[in-house]
Protein backbone atom coordinates (compact mmCIF):
# COMPACT_ATOMS: atom_id res chain seq x y z
CA UNK A 1 0.00 0.00 0.00
CA UNK A 2 1.25 3.50 -0.80
CA UNK A 3 2.52 5.15 2.38
CA UNK A 4 1.29 8.51 1.16
CA UNK A 5 -0.35 10.18 -1.81
CA UNK A 6 1.63 10.68 -5.02
CA UNK A 7 2.08 14.30 -5.98
CA UNK A 8 2.01 14.58 -9.77
CA UNK A 9 4.02 17.82 -9.93
CA UNK A 10 6.70 16.41 -7.63
CA UNK A 11 7.02 13.30 -9.79
CA UNK A 12 7.13 15.39 -12.99
CA UNK A 13 10.05 17.33 -11.51
CA UNK A 14 12.16 14.15 -11.25
CA UNK A 15 12.78 13.79 -15.01
CA UNK A 16 13.04 15.85 -18.17
CA UNK A 17 13.42 13.32 -21.00
CA UNK A 18 10.78 13.48 -23.71
CA UNK A 19 8.73 10.50 -24.96
CA UNK A 20 9.91 8.44 -22.00
CA UNK A 21 6.97 7.48 -19.76
CA UNK A 22 7.61 6.99 -16.02
CA UNK A 23 5.38 4.75 -13.96
CA UNK A 24 4.12 6.36 -10.75
CA UNK A 25 1.47 3.90 -9.55
CA UNK A 26 -0.33 0.68 -10.37
CA UNK A 27 -4.03 -0.21 -10.05
CA UNK A 28 -4.77 -3.92 -10.60
CA UNK A 29 -2.92 -4.67 -13.87
CA UNK A 30 -2.95 -1.05 -15.03
CA UNK A 31 -0.25 1.59 -14.71
CA UNK A 32 -0.30 5.34 -14.25
CA UNK A 33 2.59 6.93 -16.15
CA UNK A 34 3.78 10.50 -16.48
CA UNK A 35 5.19 11.59 -19.82
CA UNK A 36 6.74 14.81 -21.18
CA UNK A 37 6.95 15.46 -24.89
CA UNK A 38 7.26 18.07 -27.60
CA UNK A 39 7.17 17.70 -31.38
CA UNK A 40 5.75 14.73 -33.19
CA UNK A 41 5.74 11.04 -32.23
CA UNK A 42 5.29 8.13 -34.69
CA UNK A 43 2.13 6.58 -36.11
CA UNK A 44 1.22 3.47 -34.17
CA UNK A 45 -1.65 1.49 -32.68
CA UNK A 46 -2.19 -0.71 -29.64
CA UNK A 47 -4.08 -3.74 -30.92
CA UNK A 48 -5.38 -4.99 -27.58
CA UNK A 49 -6.11 -1.98 -25.42
CA UNK A 50 -7.52 1.50 -25.14
CA UNK A 51 -5.13 4.15 -23.83
CA UNK A 52 -5.99 7.27 -21.82
CA UNK A 53 -4.27 10.66 -21.83
CA UNK A 54 -5.00 13.34 -19.23
CA UNK A 55 -3.14 16.57 -20.01
CA UNK A 56 -1.59 18.17 -16.91
CA UNK A 57 0.36 21.00 -18.56
CA UNK A 58 0.26 22.51 -22.05
CA UNK A 59 -1.73 20.89 -24.78
CA UNK A 60 -1.41 18.08 -27.27
CA UNK A 61 -2.94 16.95 -30.49
CA UNK A 62 -3.89 13.34 -31.12
CA UNK A 63 -3.84 12.70 -34.84
CA UNK A 64 -6.01 9.99 -36.38
CA UNK A 65 -6.02 9.15 -40.08
CA UNK A 66 -9.31 11.01 -40.54
CA UNK A 67 -9.16 13.78 -37.93
CA UNK A 68 -7.19 15.55 -35.21
CA UNK A 69 -8.28 15.98 -31.60
CA UNK A 70 -6.85 18.69 -29.35
CA UNK A 71 -6.46 17.84 -25.66
CA UNK A 72 -5.81 20.79 -23.37
CA UNK A 73 -4.76 21.03 -19.73
CA UNK A 74 -7.49 19.50 -17.56
CA UNK A 75 -8.87 17.39 -20.40
CA UNK A 76 -9.02 13.63 -20.94
CA UNK A 77 -9.11 11.52 -24.09
CA UNK A 78 -9.39 7.75 -24.51
CA UNK A 79 -7.77 6.39 -27.67
CA UNK A 80 -9.65 3.25 -28.73
CA UNK A 81 -7.78 -0.02 -29.18
CA UNK A 82 -6.55 -0.80 -32.65
CA UNK A 83 -6.88 2.73 -34.00
CA UNK A 84 -3.76 4.22 -35.60
CA UNK A 85 -2.77 7.49 -34.02
CA UNK A 86 0.09 9.92 -33.55
CA UNK A 87 0.68 12.40 -30.73
CA UNK A 88 2.03 15.90 -31.27
CA UNK A 89 2.69 19.02 -29.20
CA UNK A 90 3.97 22.40 -30.34
CA UNK A 91 5.15 23.39 -26.87
CA UNK A 92 6.20 21.00 -24.12
CA UNK A 93 3.25 18.97 -22.88
CA UNK A 94 2.97 16.94 -19.67
CA UNK A 95 0.41 14.18 -19.50
CA UNK A 96 -0.79 11.37 -17.29
CA UNK A 97 -1.13 8.12 -19.24
CA UNK A 98 -3.27 5.23 -18.06
CA UNK A 99 -2.99 1.83 -19.72
CA UNK A 100 -2.37 -1.82 -18.86
CA UNK A 101 1.06 -2.90 -17.61
CA UNK A 102 3.38 -3.96 -20.40
CA UNK A 103 2.21 -1.56 -23.10
CA UNK A 104 5.07 -0.20 -25.22
CA UNK A 105 4.84 3.48 -26.11
CA UNK A 106 5.21 2.92 -29.85
CA UNK A 107 2.76 0.02 -29.94
CA UNK A 108 3.13 -2.05 -33.11
CA UNK A 109 5.70 0.31 -34.68
CA UNK A 110 9.47 -0.12 -34.43
CA UNK A 111 11.00 3.29 -33.83
CA UNK A 112 13.99 5.05 -32.33
CA UNK A 113 11.34 6.58 -30.04
CA UNK A 114 10.49 3.21 -28.50
CA UNK A 115 11.14 3.74 -24.79
CA UNK A 116 12.21 1.32 -22.10
CA UNK A 117 9.08 0.01 -20.48
CA UNK A 118 8.24 -0.10 -16.80
CA UNK A 119 10.64 2.64 -15.73
CA UNK A 120 9.46 4.20 -12.47
CA UNK A 121 9.70 7.90 -11.59
CA UNK B 1 -14.57 7.10 -30.36
CA UNK B 2 -14.87 10.37 -28.43
CA UNK B 3 -15.51 13.25 -30.86
CA UNK B 4 -13.46 15.57 -28.69
CA UNK B 5 -11.56 15.70 -25.43
CA UNK B 6 -13.48 15.67 -22.16
CA UNK B 7 -12.98 18.78 -20.08
CA UNK B 8 -13.00 17.81 -16.39
CA UNK B 9 -14.06 21.26 -15.13
CA UNK B 10 -16.93 21.43 -17.63
CA UNK B 11 -18.17 18.00 -16.55
CA UNK B 12 -17.85 18.91 -12.85
CA UNK B 13 -20.07 21.94 -13.51
CA UNK B 14 -22.94 19.70 -14.65
CA UNK B 15 -23.81 18.34 -11.19
CA UNK B 16 -23.63 19.29 -7.53
CA UNK B 17 -24.81 16.19 -5.62
CA UNK B 18 -22.37 14.76 -3.12
CA UNK B 19 -21.24 11.11 -2.99
CA UNK B 20 -22.82 10.50 -6.39
CA UNK B 21 -20.14 9.53 -8.94
CA UNK B 22 -20.74 10.44 -12.60
CA UNK B 23 -19.10 8.45 -15.37
CA UNK B 24 -17.31 10.60 -17.97
CA UNK B 25 -15.37 8.03 -20.01
CA UNK B 26 -14.54 4.35 -20.34
CA UNK B 27 -11.21 2.65 -21.09
CA UNK B 28 -11.53 -1.08 -21.77
CA UNK B 29 -13.66 -2.32 -18.84
CA UNK B 30 -12.70 0.61 -16.60
CA UNK B 31 -14.56 3.82 -15.92
CA UNK B 32 -13.48 7.37 -15.17
CA UNK B 33 -15.91 8.99 -12.75
CA UNK B 34 -16.12 12.45 -11.23
CA UNK B 35 -17.32 12.78 -7.67
CA UNK B 36 -17.99 15.67 -5.30
CA UNK B 37 -18.18 15.15 -1.57
CA UNK B 38 -17.90 16.73 1.86
CA UNK B 39 -18.11 15.18 5.30
CA UNK B 40 -17.60 11.52 6.02
CA UNK B 41 -18.55 8.48 3.93
CA UNK B 42 -19.01 4.92 5.31
CA UNK B 43 -16.45 2.22 6.02
CA UNK B 44 -16.35 -0.25 3.15
CA UNK B 45 -14.06 -2.34 0.99
CA UNK B 46 -13.99 -3.54 -2.61
CA UNK B 47 -13.05 -7.21 -2.44
CA UNK B 48 -12.01 -7.62 -6.07
CA UNK B 49 -10.38 -4.41 -7.19
CA UNK B 50 -8.06 -1.54 -6.43
CA UNK B 51 -9.60 1.93 -6.69
CA UNK B 52 -7.83 5.17 -7.65
CA UNK B 53 -8.56 8.72 -6.49
CA UNK B 54 -7.02 11.78 -8.13
CA UNK B 55 -7.96 14.97 -6.29
CA UNK B 56 -8.89 17.83 -8.64
CA UNK B 57 -10.08 20.40 -6.10
CA UNK B 58 -9.73 20.65 -2.33
CA UNK B 59 -8.36 17.76 -0.33
CA UNK B 60 -9.56 14.50 1.14
CA UNK B 61 -8.53 12.04 3.78
CA UNK B 62 -8.62 8.31 3.19
CA UNK B 63 -9.00 6.56 6.52
CA UNK B 64 -7.72 3.02 7.01
CA UNK B 65 -8.11 1.06 10.24
CA UNK B 66 -4.45 1.75 11.12
CA UNK B 67 -3.73 5.14 9.55
CA UNK B 68 -5.04 8.13 7.61
CA UNK B 69 -3.70 9.38 4.28
CA UNK B 70 -4.26 12.94 3.07
CA UNK B 71 -4.69 13.43 -0.67
CA UNK B 72 -4.41 17.02 -1.88
CA UNK B 73 -5.20 18.67 -5.21
CA UNK B 74 -2.89 17.22 -7.88
CA UNK B 75 -2.26 14.04 -5.92
CA UNK B 76 -3.15 10.41 -6.61
CA UNK B 77 -3.77 7.47 -4.30
CA UNK B 78 -4.55 3.84 -5.10
CA UNK B 79 -6.61 2.03 -2.46
CA UNK B 80 -5.71 -1.66 -2.56
CA UNK B 81 -8.41 -4.26 -3.09
CA UNK B 82 -9.96 -5.75 0.02
CA UNK B 83 -8.75 -3.06 2.41
CA UNK B 84 -11.41 -1.37 4.54
CA UNK B 85 -11.42 2.38 4.10
CA UNK B 86 -13.48 5.51 4.57
CA UNK B 87 -13.26 8.81 2.72
CA UNK B 88 -13.63 12.19 4.40
CA UNK B 89 -13.33 15.86 3.46
CA UNK B 90 -13.70 18.93 5.69
CA UNK B 91 -14.40 21.24 2.75
CA UNK B 92 -15.93 20.22 -0.55
CA UNK B 93 -13.61 17.98 -2.50
CA UNK B 94 -13.74 17.07 -6.21
CA UNK B 95 -12.01 13.92 -7.37
CA UNK B 96 -11.52 11.75 -10.41
CA UNK B 97 -12.16 8.09 -9.60
CA UNK B 98 -10.83 5.26 -11.73
CA UNK B 99 -12.09 1.72 -11.22
CA UNK B 100 -13.65 -1.16 -13.18
CA UNK B 101 -17.16 -0.81 -14.55
CA UNK B 102 -19.82 -2.07 -12.15
CA UNK B 103 -18.17 -1.04 -8.88
CA UNK B 104 -20.65 0.30 -6.32
CA UNK B 105 -19.47 3.29 -4.30
CA UNK B 106 -20.15 1.71 -0.91
CA UNK B 107 -18.58 -1.63 -1.87
CA UNK B 108 -19.65 -4.40 0.49
CA UNK B 109 -21.53 -2.05 2.86
CA UNK B 110 -25.28 -1.36 2.67
CA UNK B 111 -25.78 2.34 3.24
CA UNK B 112 -28.11 5.23 2.51
CA UNK B 113 -25.07 6.64 0.70
CA UNK B 114 -25.09 3.82 -1.87
CA UNK B 115 -25.41 5.66 -5.18
CA UNK B 116 -26.96 4.60 -8.46
CA UNK B 117 -24.25 3.08 -10.55
CA UNK B 118 -23.31 3.93 -14.11
CA UNK B 119 -24.81 7.43 -14.14
CA UNK B 120 -23.09 9.55 -16.78
CA UNK B 121 -22.31 13.25 -16.44
Provide a descriptive summary of the structure in words.
- Two copies of one chain form a homodimer.
- By secondary structure, chain A is mainly β.
- Chain A has a domain of 80 residues: Sandwich (Jelly Rolls), CATH 2.60.120.10.
- The first copy, chain A, has one helix and eight strands.
- In chain A, strands 2, 3, 4, 5, 6, 7 and 8 form a seven-stranded antiparallel β-sheet that branches.
- The longest helix of chain A is centred in the first third of the chain and has 5 residues.
- The mean pLDDT of chain A is 96.
- Chains A and B meet through strand 1, strand 2, strand 4, strand 6 and strand 7 of A and strand 1, strand 2, strand 4, strand 6 and strand 7 of B.
- Strand 1 of chain A pairs antiparallel with strand 7 of chain B, so a sheet runs across the interface.
Amino acid sequence: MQASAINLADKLATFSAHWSPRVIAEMNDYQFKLVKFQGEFVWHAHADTDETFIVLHGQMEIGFRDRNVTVREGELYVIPRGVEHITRAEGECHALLIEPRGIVNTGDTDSTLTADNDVWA
